Each structure stands twice: as structure tokens, then as C-alpha cells.
């Protein structure tokens, strides 16, 4: 593929030019189709259907390409045949390297809980702007995100400080044949074998983890999210009052540098202070047990006060760090914010020196002090989720016209709980696997084991995982029966979509009906997630209560129960522990494969395509927001091209590319927007984003978008599991949705199609004849003085074999659900 670095010629057009062939050297007013791909990415050659492409502008991360023959399209003379139809010049915006580029993206897998928590921030209901509960909701999400950072740091401390340095290195039975623990082994009676010094050495592991998260957040912001918006003020048309402008129209929505920097400082400090707290608790317990002198005790109290002050300061910064979206936030933070992580690092260094001080008679046994930390974090997260549920209910009550909102407006709270569960599985799974490796598979709580093992709460949490998986399996079976029921209901309507079929193939009809039924499962996702999160909350609460009331792992706590109950408890504990560890191993294996294999990295990149569209407003360690680079890219291209060449532009977005396209259109100034049409297909704008993010893509926001630009059409299919209709009608009565399109285009074998046509589902919308007809209609709308071509869009729509068929009766619920 030719990716030579060339720039398309940019010349100032003559507005009086009419395309006269007598002046072929003068630039022409042409039309441009700017293609934006969807999830998973593709190559520019595939998008442009030509192996020879040239990069017009951009870099290796994201760029715009053309066919080589179209590189100088603006300078070519017009077609000498008067009235000859002319196809628009096609450009492809390729942004897949923002999420699936080099191998470092594999490190992003450990950031999955943070990404999910960040999504919860954007899922608040669409209450009127300025509603007091909105700020409460945002603050609760940011505090919950902070607890995830503390949980991850506490999990690293559990493995490094408790299991390795405190339990294993302090037990000759565990460390005897582990040479890498030799200098920490108490049997050697070396300088580093004292408990406090062992802990200080082990603290480097969680310290490096926090440093890695801080570095990734800083590096990814500089690489992917620092694109500035065009130097013009986006504004609404005269039909939209400023108070009703959608949030995505605001100038600073896609540039929140200071927000990420402030949250990064606070979260890094919180992680460092978590390590310092673990050391301080251990030193305090030793001072109380060994009767240390007053100097050590008062030093510990002073350090505890310092850590507490810095922790409160971190929490205050998190609570007060709200997004400023009216203008790009380019101001510099106050010194107290910039220096907070360094102050926390200094407090950690002083704490390490205090802990390493020699204390006579200090030995390590049992669990590290502070075992209840995980229970405290779990209770706090549960309280925050309940607060989110109540706040979201208030916001949803104040919202209007959001009947299709996912989970009745409570999706944000459900997703926040899933983030907590993912964080618990990640930290608990690492601790369980590390304990099994160190104690050679001994059962947690066994008095004959070489070490005490992980905290009791982690064993209880592991024991509920099999129950949750059984529930998920039941839901999958129910979904499978629903698919079969929908397929039976749709099946009789399938042959009627193809009137030219005399003897329809029953097997072919079943395949099409099954595709439609499976595509409809997307609309049931809110119910599935709601049931899973409710069960997770109940089971998690039971695990916390069981650990608190018994103080023993499930297998030992139920020793006095009937034999079958005890056997079930032991089996659940062992199986859950294995599943938690297997999940972590699978995550690491996926990361290792993605690091080496481009195709695997692109597959994982699909997850980031969906989850990292939104800016990092709640958690700074989440994977970077690619839209903060892609949206300015598209806005810059549309604004500069229409201004330079005075042409018409169709922004053509597929799948996730349609979401980027809509966000870019919102950022255009009114003059540029008047020269741009929007063509979306396979679009999740209403079906997914409108339901899950109603405050930003709900009915009022999408209505505002089509009011700003009536040159918008949307193509969709029943067989598409992602895309769907936007359910809007223009003010002049024109319908934005065109569909459902036939899929497949033909039912059986014909003279024109001797082989069976493929069921396209979510892909290849350009293969439908209605695509070209709709694009021509949009171009004609942008130039009302140009007469439509013979057999114009309306006629083409009627004649095209891909014309929208009547909706199958069995799919009526899909259209209006």
C-alpha cells in the first residue's frame, strides 16, 4: 500500500467559477465524502476500495487518506459533459491506532475497573442542566473512583507486604527453599530480616505500581488527548437558545487537561498514602506490643497525622475537581495540587524510615495488621453505590422524554458497582494466586499451613463467584430461549420481504430470522446487567457479613453445619479461589498476546473503542479518551476544507464512527455546519448511546442535533446487533431514518446473484443501493440550486432492490422497544 506523505493542494477558489470548460485551470467546487470507520478499525485501502492510497494529513496514530488518483482532485477541471453526475471525492479518517496501536496498549488491561468507573460518570440521567443532584452524582462517582485506586494499592500491599514479606519471609517452612527470599529470611538473621525492614523492601512493589499508573496517565494524555479544538468559537444556530445548547456543543468539552492533571495528582497521592498507612499500622502495632520508647510512638503519631492531612487534601481535591466545559481548560494548577504527590512520596519515605527502625522482640506472625482494610473499602463502596442509586432516581424523576433510558436511569449506579466488583476480582485474584503459590496450595485458614494466607474477606468473596456464575448461566439459557421464540415469531414474515421469491428456502429463512433474533439481544442488555449487579450487591453484602461475623473462611466457618452444607461451602471456596486466579491469569495472557500480536491487539482495541470514547472525568488512570484526539481532527478537517475549497461535504460515519461524526458536527460553527451533511449507518447513537448516556445523546440532544442540521440521514437493518434507528423526524416532515434495509439484499439465487448473498448484519452498508441514493440526496440538499439527477433519490429509493421493506411483525417490538 502506498502511504506516501503528500498533501492535497489547497487553493483559494473563485466563487464566481461555474465550471466552464474554457477555464480548466481554475479550481472547481467539488463534493467530499469523509469516511469514519467503526469499532475494530480497518485499513485506508479497505475503506477506499483501492490498494493505492496516499496520506493527506495526519500521522501514524490517526490520519486522513485518499486514493492516489484523487490526491489533486480539487485542481482537476470539471466534467465537460453538461449535467453529468459526479461522484464525491472520498477521504478516509483512520483512527484505530488510537486504541490498538503499539504493544504498550496491552498494559491497559489492568485499567479495566477504572474505565468502567469512568463510564458511570457519563451515565447520569438527563435532568435539566444545573439540577443540584447532578453535582452530587458526579462527586459520588469521583469518590468511588478514588476508592478503586486505594483498593488496587491495598491489593498490591497485601501481596507484597503481607503474603511475601510478612508471612512467607517470616516463616522458615515457607521461605526455606525460596532463594530469592534468602536475604529476607528470618533464619539467616541478617540486617534485612527484621520485620520492619522486610516490609520496607517489599513496599517497592506497590510503589512501582502507583508510579506506573501515574506515568501511563501522563504519557497517554500527552500522546492522545492533547489535541486543541479549532480556533473558532462553535455556536448554535438562531433556532437554539444558548441555554438549550447540548453539552457536546461546548467549546471545552473535548479538552480537559487540568481535570485529568488534578485527578492524577490526587489519585497518585492516595495510592502512595495507602502504602504509608500499611507501614504505619504495622509499626504502631509493633510499638504497642513490644513496649517501644516514647520517641518512636510519638513519631508514629506525627506521621499518622501527616498522612491523614494529605489523605483529606486528596479527597477534597477529588471532590472539587469538576469539569469546566464552556472553554478549553488550559490553566495551570495551583502549586499545592502539583506538589501533592511529592508530599505523599516524602511522607512515605519518612514512614519507611520509621518502620525500618530496629525494635527488640518484634516478630511477624499471622496476618499483617490492617486486615480489615478490604472490608472497610467494600462497605464504603456499597454506601457510595446506594448514594448513586438514590441520586440517579432523583435525576431520572426530573428528566423528561427519556422513557427508553437503560435501567430506568440507574445504569450509572449499576456500572459503578460492576467497576467495584471488577476491582475486587482483580485484587482478590492476585492475592489468592500468590497465596496458593507461596503456601503450596494449602487451604486458607488451615492451622497446619505454612502461612496464614490472604484476608478472610477475600475467601468469602471468592466463594460467591460460583453462585454468580450460575446465575449468569441461567440468564444465558433464558436469553437463548428468547432468541428461539423471536425467531419463530419472525420466520413467517421473512419470505414476504422478497416478493420475487416463488419457492423460498426454509433453511435460508430460518438463518435470516435467527440473525434478526440474535441482533435483538442488545436491547435486553440493561435487564441482564441490572440482574447481575443486584445479585452482586446481595452476594457481596453477604460476604462482608460472613467474614465479619465468623472471622473464618467459609469452609471452616461452617464446620458445624450438616455435611453437605460444609462440602458445598468448601467447594465454593476452592472453586471461587481458582476462578479468581484464573481470571487474572487470563487477563495477563491476553495482555501478553496483545503485546506481541497485532490482530489480538486490535481485538482488544474493540473494547477500548467502546469504553474510552468519553473523557477521563472520574478516574485519571483509565485508558485515554481517543475522542479527544479524533473529534478535533474531524472538526479541523471539515472547517479548513470547506473554508478553503467552498465545497459540499458529507460526513459518513459507520458504527462508532457515527458517534465521532455526530460529536464533531456538534463542535462546528454555524457557517461550516451549513455546508456539511451527516450520513450515519450501523449507528448506535440512539440504541446504545441514547439509552446508556441520556444526558448527552438522549432524545433532546439528538433533536437538537437534527435541528442544527437537517441534512442528516441514518441507515439501519434489523440484522444489525449494534446499529439502529435514531427515531427522529425533521421539522419539514422528512424522516431521518432510512430502513430497515434488506439483509441479505436478495433471498435466493438469481441471474444477477447466482451465489447466495451474504447476511451483512453490522457491516458493508455501502453494498446497498440505497446508500448511494441517500448520499446523492444529501449532496443535493446542500446545493438546493442544483437540480436533482434523473431518477432522483426518491425514485431511486423506490426502484432500488435494497429499498426498505415492511417491518416483520415479529420484529415490531425491536422497532418500538
UniProtKB/TrEMBL annotation:
Region (Disordered): 1-28, 67-87, 224-244, 783-817
Xref: InterPro entries: AB_hydrolase_fold
Keyword field: Membrane, Transmembrane, Transmembrane helix
Biased composition (Low complexity): 808-817
Membrane-spanning parts: 136-156, 199-216, 266-286, 298-318, 339-358, 373-395, 407-431, 464-486, 527-551, 571-591
Protein name, per record: Integral membrane protein
Taxonomic placement: Bacteria, Bacillati, Actinomycetota, Actinomycetes, Kitasatosporales
Amino acid at each position: 500500500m502506498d502511504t506516501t506523505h503528500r498533501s492535497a493542494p489547497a487553493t483559494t477558489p473563485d466563487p464566481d467559477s461555474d465550471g466552464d470548460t474554457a477555464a480548466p485551470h481554475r479550481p472547481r467546487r467539488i463534493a467530499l465524502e469523509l469516511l469514519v470507520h467503526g469499532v475494530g478499525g480497518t485499513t485506508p485501502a479497505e475503506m477506499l476500495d483501492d490498494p493505492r492510497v496516499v496520506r493527506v494529513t495526519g500521522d501514524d496514530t490517526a490520519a486522513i487518506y485518499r486514493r492516489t488518483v484523487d490526491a489533486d482532485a480539487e485542481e482537476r477541471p470539471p466534467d465537460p459533459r453538461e449535467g453529468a453526475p459526479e461522484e464525491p471525492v472520498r477521504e478516509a479518517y483512520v483512527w484505530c491506532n488510537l486504541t490498538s496501536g503499539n504493544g504498550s496498549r496491552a498494559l491497559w488491561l489492568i485499567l479495566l475497573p477504572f474505565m468502567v468507573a469512568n463510564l458511570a460518570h457519563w451515565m447520569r440521567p438527563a435532568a435539566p442542566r444545573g439540577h443540584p443532584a447532578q453535582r452530587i452524582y458526579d462527586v459520588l462517582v469521583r469518590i468511588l473512583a478514588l476508592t478503586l485506586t486505594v483498593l488496587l494499592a491495598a491489593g498490591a500491599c497485601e501481596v507484597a507486604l503481607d503474603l511475601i514479606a510478612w508471612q512467607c519471609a517470616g516463616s522458615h517452612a515457607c521461605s526455606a527453599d525460596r532463594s530469592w527470599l534468602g536475604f529476607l529470611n528470618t533464619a539467616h538473621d541478617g540486617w534485612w530480616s527484621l520485620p520492619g525492614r522486610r516490609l520496607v523492601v517489599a513496599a517497592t512493589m506497590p510503589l512501582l505500581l502507583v508510579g506506573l499508573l501515574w506515568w501511563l496517565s501522563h504519557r497517554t494524555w500527552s500522546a492522545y488527548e492533547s489535541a486543541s479544538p479549532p480556533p473558532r468559537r462553535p455556536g448554535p444556530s438562531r433556532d437554539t437558545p444558548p441555554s438549550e445548547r447540548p453539552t457536546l456543543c461546548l467549546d471545552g468539552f473535548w479538552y480537559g487537561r487540568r481535570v485529568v492533571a488534578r485527578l492524577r495528582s490526587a489519585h497518585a497521592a492516595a495510592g502512595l498514602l495507602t502504602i504509608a498507612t500499611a507501614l504505619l499500622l504495622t509499626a504502631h502495632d509493633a510499638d504497642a506490643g513490644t513496649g517501644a520508647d516514647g520517641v518512636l510512638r510519638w513519631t508514629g503519631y506525627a506521621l499518622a497525622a501527616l498522612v491523614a492531612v494529605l489523605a483529606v487534601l486528596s479527597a477534597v481535591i477529588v471532590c472539587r475537581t469538576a469539569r469546566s466545559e464552556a472553554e478549553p481548560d488550559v490553566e495551570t494548577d495551583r502549586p499545592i495540587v502539583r506538589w501533592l504527590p511529592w508530599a505523599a512520596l516524602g511522607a512515605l519515605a519518612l514512614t519507611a524510615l520509621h518502620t525500618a527502625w530496629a525494635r527488640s522482640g518484634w516478630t511477624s506472625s499471622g496476618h499483617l495488621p490492617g486486615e480489615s482494610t478490604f472490608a472497610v473499602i467494600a462497605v464504603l463502596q456499597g454506601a457510595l453505590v446506594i448514594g448513586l442509586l438514590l441520586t440517579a432516581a432523583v435525576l431520572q424523576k426530573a428528566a423528561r422524554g427519556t422513557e427508553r433510558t437503560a435501567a430506568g436511569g440507574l445504569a450509572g449506579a449499576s456500572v459503578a458497582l460492576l467497576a467495584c466488583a471488577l476491582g475486587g476480582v482483580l485484587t482478590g485474584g492476585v492475592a489468592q494466586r500468590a497465596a496458593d503459590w507461596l503456601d503450596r496450595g494449602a487451604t486458607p485458614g488451615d492451622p497446619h499451613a505454612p502461612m496464614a494466607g490472604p484476608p478472610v474477606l477475600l475467601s468469602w468473596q471468592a466463594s460467591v463467584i460460583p453462585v454468580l456464575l450460575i446465575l449468569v448461566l441461567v440468564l444465558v439459557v433464558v436469553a437463548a430461549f428468547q432468541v428461539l421464540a423471536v425467531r419463530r415469531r419472525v420466520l413467517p414474515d421473512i419470505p414476504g420481504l422478497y416478493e420475487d421469491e416463488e419457492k423460498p428456502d426454509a433453511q435460508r429463512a430460518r438463518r435470516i430470522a435467527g440473525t434478526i433474533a440474535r441482533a435483538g439481544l442488545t436491547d435486553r442488555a440493561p435487564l441482564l446487567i441490572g440482574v447481575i449487579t443486584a445479585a452482586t450487591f446481595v452476594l457481596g453484602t453477604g460476604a462482608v457479613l460472613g467474614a465479619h461475623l465468623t472471622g473464618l473462611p467459609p469452609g471452616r466457618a461452617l464446620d458445624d453445619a450438616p455435611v453437605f452444607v460444609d462440602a458445598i461451602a468448601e467447594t465454593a471456596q476452592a472453586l471461587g479461589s481458582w476462578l479468581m486466579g484464573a481470571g487474572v491469569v487470563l487477563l495477563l495472557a491476553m495482555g501478553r498476546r496483545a503485546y506481541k500480536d497485532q490482530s489480538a491487539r486490535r481485538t482488544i482495541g474493540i473494547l477500548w473503542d467502546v469504553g474510552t470514547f468519553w473523557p477521563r472525568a472520574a478516574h485519571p488512570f483509565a485508558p485515554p479518551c481517543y475522542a479527544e484526539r479524533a473529534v478535533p481532527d474531524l472538526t479541523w478537517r471539515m472547517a479548513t476544507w470547506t473554508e478553503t475549497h467552498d465545497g459540499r461535504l458529507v460526513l459518513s460515519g459507520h458504527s462508532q464512527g457515527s458517534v465521532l461524526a455526530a460529536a464533531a458536527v456538534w463542535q462546528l460553527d454555524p457557517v461550516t455546519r451549513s455546508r456539511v451533511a451527516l450520513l450515519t449507518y450501523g449507528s448506535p447513537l440512539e440504541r446504545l448511546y441514547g439509552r446508556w448516556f441520556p444526558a448527552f445523546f438522549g432524545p433532546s440532544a439528538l433533536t437538537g442535533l437534527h435541528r442544527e442540521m437537517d441534512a442528516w440521514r441514518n441507515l439501519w437493518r434489523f440484522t444489525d446487533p449494534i446499529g439502529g434507528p435514531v427515531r427522529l423526524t425533521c421539522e419539514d416532515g422528512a424522516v431521518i431514518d432510512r430502513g430497515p434495509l434488506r439483509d441479505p439484499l436478495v433471498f435466493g439465487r438469481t441471474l444477477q446473484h447466482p451465489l447466495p448473498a451474504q447476511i451483512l448484519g453490522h457491516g458493508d452498508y455501502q453494498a446497498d443501493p440505497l446508500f448511494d441514493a441517500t448520499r446523492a440526496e444529501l449532496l443535493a440538499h446542500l446545493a438546493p440550486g442544483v437540480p436533482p439527477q434523473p431518477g432522483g433519490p426518491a425514485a431511486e429509493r423506490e426502484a432500488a432492490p435494497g429499498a426498505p421493506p415492511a417491518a416483520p411483525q415479529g420484529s415490531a417490538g425491536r422497532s418500538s422497544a
